[in-house]
Design a protein that fits this description.
The complex is a heterodimer of chains A (about 450) and B (about 375). With about 450 residues, chain A is an alpha/beta fold. Chain A has helices spanning about 1-10, 20-40, 45-60, 180-185, 190-195, 225-230, 265-285, 310-320, 330-340, 355-360, 360-370, 385-390, 395-420, 435-445, and strands at about 15-20, 70-75, 80-85, 90-95, 100-110, 120-125, 130-135, 140-155, 160-175, 210-215, 235-240, 245-255, 290-295, 300-305, 345-350, 375-380, 425-430. Chain A has 3 domains: about 70-175, Sandwich (Immunoglobulin-like), CATH 2.60.40.10; about 180-185 and about 195-200 and about 245-445, Rossmann fold (3-Layer(aba) Sandwich), CATH 3.40.50.410; about 210-240, no CATH class. In chain A, the strands form 4 sheets. In chain A, strands 1, 3, 5, 6, 8 and 9 form a 6-stranded mixed beta sheet that branches. In chain A, a hairpin with a 3-residue loop joins strand 13 and strand 14. The longest helix of chain A has 26 residues, at about 395-420. Chain B has helices at about 1-25, 45-55, 85-100, 195-205, 215-220, 235-255, 275-285, 290-310, 315-320, 330-345, 350-370, and strands at about 55-60, 75-80, 100-105, 120, 130-135, 140, 145-150, 155-160, 165-170, 175-180, 210-215. Chain B is built from 11 helices and 11 strands. In chain B, the strands form 3 sheets. In chain B, strands 1-11-2-3-10-9-8 form a 7-stranded mixed beta sheet, with helices on both faces. In chain B, strands 4-7 form a two-stranded antiparallel sheet. In chain B, helix 8 runs parallel beside helix 11 (about 350-370) and helix 9 (about 315-320) runs antiparallel to helix 10 (about 330-345). Chain B starts with a helix and ends with a helix. Classes of the chains: A alpha/beta (about 450), B alpha/beta (about 375).
Chain lengths: ~450, ~375
């Protein structure tokens, strides 16, 4: 009884077993039709049972051609780090050691958010290694464990199919999409030119000496390097650039309203991507960057560091931050940032402006903060609010929603103005321009020597 | 490994063949059906048959009485036959009787057989034993069925007890029909008990001249015991049988899990207008239309200031007269809107209809102002 139960289990519910194919079902239907037609002239129960059993037994001969688990070897080749929203291929190596050609279907144990598309019919040559690849498109950041590879093989005849499971544990990290960061690092000037902001290298007044170059019309004559000009018999000028070694603290809000859905991903996704781009820009510029992710509590902290390799530390620490369905505790986060960052720094808060301004009590607190640090809030423009503002009301409920959207818009505008007057600027950018706006803000601050 | 498994399958294959050939060739069932004359089991009637076989001329028949019956004056015994669904079978028995033969039927409940009707007798349910009277004397007998035969006028009662007739005789053509309840009296188990033997011989008009036929047609033919398989045409059974197999294969094919068990994703979509929606519902419930119009007017004020630089503190009449000729609405219209809006904003409450009309008016103005950018 026990063995029957385990057999039944294996047949239906376990990862291995044998099952009929669609082709067998079609053939059996055809067989039924033939027997049905014959039964108008000839019928006996014994004849019916014998011919049916014979048919099934002959179809079972097909199972001989199916391989054992030992005759197959499967290996998965998948990168350990995947970027969100970036299509990638997973390679599966399958070694068919049996003496028959086979057809294979496979399914991997990757999470549904990877949106894998598996190949449905792939031919495996006998005694050969076949490589099968399938594309994945990860949607949600985080750490995942991938274990089993499920395959179903059938012979060329293809009446019965065998399901075999192979185990290969792997840990896969889905990190934020770094395409913006890469674009910046490839060519910072072009990235920002596109967005309308320039990295100003030449500046008068205080700054760090960068290099000596040919004098160009319009350069400050006071910056002419006379010594070099005499040496080279050509007018040379000194070039300065903003000082290095400034401190940037990035605060990422992971509270309730950051979970708001956008076209692709939510606000937090965009904020994390923008934060990484700003971090890359600052690190590339030789500044120190520290990152704090928070919601009700502090979720992840990266102390200040320098050099582009620090970006990897930041990435590994914050790649899995998730939206917390609770209100964010701004006071705690800012207090924490202050205790961590004793030197003057640029505090860049990625948050929802609407939520932030509703916490009226900390204006006074922020003014105190303002004396020591440079504080910016960067939010994502609410496209739904914009749509509501422009709606033509056809019903009372629509009119009501519109009027309240208008109220919210006015209130937000007013509060942002008030805070700006106190030297606490707030910005709102459309989701796709968030990273560029944040970097521009950073460059602008450096150019103006505010830090 | 492959070799061993192929051996296993080969053995299974042979076993299936053996089983099929066994069931298809052996005609003797392991268990005897009840009342079979060859059955030595307690439910069989071998004892009765053997006795009759010694004393009288007895044959077994497994076919219906044929039309050309050479033997006249025979007795045909039917032990608990099924109800005949086929009219032709019943007709052949009636013809048989009309030719001058006797048909004796023992059946637990003969209701519906050859127009015999029976009554259900409730008192009999709890009774095991009864006293059965024949024409001349009375005997004790075991009782197992709670029905009695309904008598018709020309019927002759052979056996009866206090609850009604147990066996009757009816003339049909030249022959006779004898119907008796309690076929159990004839079984190997019961035949020697109580007065069963005497009762049986009182019922059957046995005669050394008469030929006795044990009709076992119903045990061996499809119309009898296997009648349930002939209710429908053959092709229906083929469809049923193959359909069951096909369904099993299909369930197997579609039921087997391929891939990991997928946990449904948590509900985590959030929209930024949740606050707006909640507030607007609350405003609607409180019929707070005036405040809403106020917000709309403020927004329009803001738009006009952005567009034309007209400060907030101006009245609506001043504001709208300043944008005359700059929007598509006529000056007269603007003046009218401004005046009505001034009074409207100073009122305490607003009707729903008014509210909707004013929302549309302000929206139109807003669009006009914005389109001039």
């Amino acid at each position: 009884m026990k063995s029957f139960k385990s057999w039944w289990d294996r047949l239906l519910f376990r990862d291995k077993g044998i099952l009929p194919t669609k082709r067998l079902l079609y053939l059996f239907s055809l067989f039924t039709v033939v027997v049905f037609l014959i039964s108008f002239w000839l019928f006996s129960w014994i004849w019916l049972i014998v011919i049916t059993l014979l048919g099934i037994v002959f179809s079972l001969l097909d199972i001989f051609q199916l391989p054992n688990k030992k005759e197959m070897a499967v290996f998965r080749d998948i990168p350990n780090e995947l970027e969100r929203y970036q299509e990638q291929d997973v390679l599966i190596h399958i070694h068919n050691e049996s003496t028959y050609d086979l057809y294979i279907r496979l399914k991997d144990n990757v999470p549904p958010s990877f949106q894998a598309v598996y190949p449905c019919q792939h031919r495996l040559k006998k005694r050969a290694v076949t490589k099968i690849s399938y594309p994945i498109f990860p949607q949600v950041r985080g750490k995942y464990f991938v274990q089993n590879i499920y395959i179903r093989v059938k012979s060329i005849l293809g009446l019965w199919e065998k399901q075999i499971t192979f185990s290969q544990s792997e840990e896969i990290k889905v990190i934020p999409n770094l395409s913006e960061t890469k674009r910046y690092l490839e060519n910072a000037q072009q990235y920002l030119l596109h967005e309308g902001m320039k990295i100003r290298k030449m500046r008068s007044g205080p700054g760090e000496f960068a290099k000596v170059r040919h004098y160009a019309v319009g350069d400050d004559p006071r910056k002419i390097n006379w010594r070099q000009s005499a040496k080279l018999q050509e007018v040379m000028t000194n070039e300065f650039e903003p000082e290095h070694g400034k401190y940037i603290t990035i605060l990422i809000d992971c509270g309730r309203m950051m979970g708001v859905e956008l076209e692709d991903g939510n606000r937090l996704e965009k904020s994390v991507e923008a934060a990484l781009t700003v971090a890359a820009a600052a690190l590339d510029n030789g500044d120190y960057v520290s990152v704090i992710a928070f919601s009700k509590d502090i979720q992840a902290v990266v102390p200040a560091g320098k050099g582009l390799e620090h970006l990897q530390t930041i990435l590994q620490t914050i790649y899995a931050v998730q939206v917390n369905p609770q209100e964010s505790n701004y006071a705690l986060a800012i207090q924490y940032a202050q205790s961590m960052q004793k030197k003057r720094s640029m505090l860049l808060l990625f948050s929802d402006v609407q939520t932030f301004i509703h916490e009226d009590y900390h204006l006074h607190y922020m003014q105190k903060l303002r004396r020591k640090h440079l504080f910016f809030v960067i939010g994502i423009q609410d496209s739904l609010l914009q749509k509501k503002l422009e709606i033509s009301p056809s019903s009372v409920s629509e009119a009501m929603e519109k009027s309240l959207a208008q109220k919210q818009y006015l209130q937000q505008k007013e509060t942002m103005l008030k805070w700006q007057k106190h030297g606490l600027p707030m910005l709102e950018a459309p989701a796709e321009q968030l990273a560029a706006t944040a970097v521009s803000q950073y460059i602008n601050t450096l150019n103006r020597g505010l830090l | 490994m492959l070799h061993r498994s192929s051996n296993k399958i080969g053995i299974a294959f042979v076993l299936i063949l053996v089983a099929v050939s066994y069931f298809s060739t052996s005609q003797t069932p392991e268990e005897y059906p009840a009342y079979l004359s060859a059955s030595p089991s307690p439910t069989g009637t071998k004892a009765f048959y053997t006795y009759l076989d010694k004393e009288y001329q007895v044959t077994k028949e497994t076919s219906l009485p044929s039309d050309i019956t050479e033997k006249q004056n025979t007795i045909r015994l039917l032990l608990n036959p099924p109800l005949f669904t086929d009219q032709s079978i019943q007709k052949s028995y009636i013809d048989y009787m009309k030719d001058g033969n006797t048909l004796a039927i023992w059946k637990n409940n003969p209701d519906g057989l050859f127009n015999i009707q029976s009554d259900y007798v409730e008192e009999l349910v709890n009774i095991d034993q009864t006293t059965v009277e024949t024409d001349s004397s009375s005997y004790q007998a075991l009782s197992s069925i709670p029905v009695r035969i309904q008598m018709e006028n020309e019927d002759h009662v052979l056996l009866k007890d206090e609850y009604g007739p147990i066996a009757i005789e009816r003339s049909i053509g030249d022959g006779k029909l004898i119907v008796a309840l309690e076929p159990d009296w004839l079984t190997n188990d019961w035949i020697t008990k109580e007065g069963h033997v005497a009762l049986i011989f009182n019922t059957l008009p046995l005669d050394h001249e008469k030929h006795i036929i044990f009709d076992e047609y119903s045990y061996y033919t499809q119309e009898g015991l296997q009648a349930q398989f002939n209710l429908y045409p053959n092709w229906a059974y083929v469809l049923l049988f193959e359909g069951i197999l096909l369904t099993i294969l299909w369930l197997w094919y579609s039921g087997k899990r391929f891939g990991a068990i997928i946990q449904p994703r948590d509900e985590m979509v959030r929209f930024s207008d949740e606050r707006l929606k909640a507030l607007s519902n609350w405003y609607l419930k409180g019929k707070n239309y005036h405040a809403s119009i106020q917000y709309q007017a403020d927004y329009l004020k803001d738009r006009i200031k952005e567009q034309y630089g007209i400060p907030y503190h101006k009245s609506w009449i001043e504001r709208l007269s300043a944008i005359e000729n700059k929007v598509t609405s006529s000056n007269h219209e603007l003046r009218q809107v401004a005046e009505e809006l001034e009074t409207l904003l100073h009122r305490d409450s607003l009707l729903k209809q008014e509210y909707l009309i004013w929302s549309k008016r302000l929206d139109r103005l807003q669009k006009e102002v914005e389109s001039h950018e």
